[in-house]
From TrEMBL:
<protein>
    <submittedName>
        <fullName>LysR family transcriptional regulator</fullName>
    </submittedName>
</protein>
<dbReference type="InterPro" id="IPR005119">
    <property type="entry name" value="LysR_subst-bd"/>
</dbReference>
<dbReference type="InterPro" id="IPR000847">
    <property type="entry name" value="LysR_HTH_N"/>
</dbReference>
<dbReference type="GO" id="GO:0000976">
    <property type="term" value="F:transcription cis-regulatory region binding"/>
</dbReference>
<feature type="domain" description="HTH lysR-type">
    <location>
        <begin position="2"/>
        <end position="59"/>
    </location>
</feature>
<dbReference type="GO" id="GO:0003700">
    <property type="term" value="F:DNA-binding transcription factor activity"/>
</dbReference>
<dbReference type="Pfam" id="PF03466">
    <property type="entry name" value="LysR_substrate"/>
</dbReference>
<dbReference type="InterPro" id="IPR036388">
    <property type="entry name" value="WH-like_DNA-bd_sf"/>
</dbReference>
<dbReference type="InterPro" id="IPR036390">
    <property type="entry name" value="WH_DNA-bd_sf"/>
</dbReference>
<keyword id="KW-0804">Transcription</keyword>
<keyword id="KW-0238">DNA-binding</keyword>
<comment type="similarity">
    <text>Belongs to the LysR transcriptional regulatory family.</text>
</comment>
<dbReference type="Pfam" id="PF00126">
    <property type="entry name" value="HTH_1"/>
</dbReference>
<keyword id="KW-0805">Transcription regulation</keyword>
Length: 295
């Protein structure tokens, strides 16, 4: 039966180029490395190294065995990491809830970094409005949330601001509001407003209702579709509105008060039951870097 020590000695010798260098890398004496490899050769019935020259050279059989040894040692490393995390009561379940209005273009790099550092991690990804993200984190359904800042958060949630997203007012290219510059905001009230709200009918603190005639969507991509089709005016993140802007039939509201746009802060929130654990703190750090670059 092969042992982990045998495989470690085998791989280290290949990587370091000699038995003595392998011994130093593994903090063992050279005789122990040589014995482990000899036992591996006996157990496998294969000659793994050609020892006829000064430095050991892999045989053809050794080259064939090497990728399998690498794979088994990697699985062993994952097993040890999982045992350590379980023993230290470290949660390896990460459920990330994100408002769809927030760009997460390079999220894959965050996932890769977390998975490399915590090999036993299990990810779940949820899309929701910012108000829904709060409720998901507060109820522990999600362990981390990325959302637009709200005026108030439930007591006890940990949060930090990591960037901002620019918003503006948009209408469809053929909407009546495009015919003339809007001279005051009261003119918007005469037309249907398109608004994002949560699945339980709550609206964000910065998504205010102005018009008496309102249609709702629970995400910005559906809102963009409604704006594009001319059903009303709506407030959209610029990166969503500007995607294919010329072909989309969406225009920025022509207004005499030119600067309608504003920045909404982006927050990362976590439940205190998770935020102090190393894996959740590391995820927060990676998200901070990602979102800080994209703002």
């Amino acid at each position: 039966m092969f042992s982990i020590e045998q495989l470690e000695a085998f791989v280290a010798t290949v990587e370091q180029g000699s038995f003595s260098a392998a011994a130093r890398s593994l903090n063992k004496v050279q005789s122990a490395i040589s014995q482990h490899i000899m036992n591996l050769e006996i157990d496998s019935g294969l000659e793994l190294f050609d020892r006829s020259s000064r430095y050991p050279k892999l045989t053809t059989n050794g080259e064939k065995l090497l990728p399998h040894a690498h794979a088994l040692l990697q699985q062993h490393y994952r097993l040890r990491q999982s045992i350590t995390q379980i023993a230290n009561d470290e949660s390896t379940q990460l459920s990330l809830a994100v408002d769809e209005g927030i760009p997460m273009d390079n999220l894959s790099s965050v996932i890769e970094h977390v998975a490399e550092k915590f090999p036993g991690v299990t990810f779940e990804f949820l899309s929701a409005s910012s108000v829904d993200v709060i409720e998901l984190v507060e109820s522990k359904r999600a362990t981390t949330g990325v959302m637009f800042s709200e005026v108030s958060l439930p007591a006890g949630l940990d949060f930090e601001s990591v960037g901002s997203i620019e918003f503006d007012v948009y209408v469809g290219a053929n909407h009546p509001l495009t015919k003339h510059k809007v001279s005051n905001i009261d003119q918007l009230i005469l037309h249907r407003q398109l608004l994002v709200r949560s699945k339980n009918s709550k609206t964000s603190s910065f998504q205010k209702a102005y018009s008496p005639d309102i249609w709702y969507a629970d995400n910005y991509y559906m809102l963009r579709e409604l704006v594009q089709k001319g059903f009303g005016w709506g407030v959209l993140p610029k990166h969503i509105a500007n995607y294919g802007l010329k072909e989309s039939g969406i225009v920025r509201l022509p207004a005499e008060f030119e600067n309608l746009s504003w920045h909404a802060n982006v927050d990362i929130i976590q439940h205190p039951a998770f935020s102090s654990h190393p894996i959740h703190a590391y995820l927060r750090s990676e998200l901070r870097q990602l979102l800080g670059k994209s703002s």
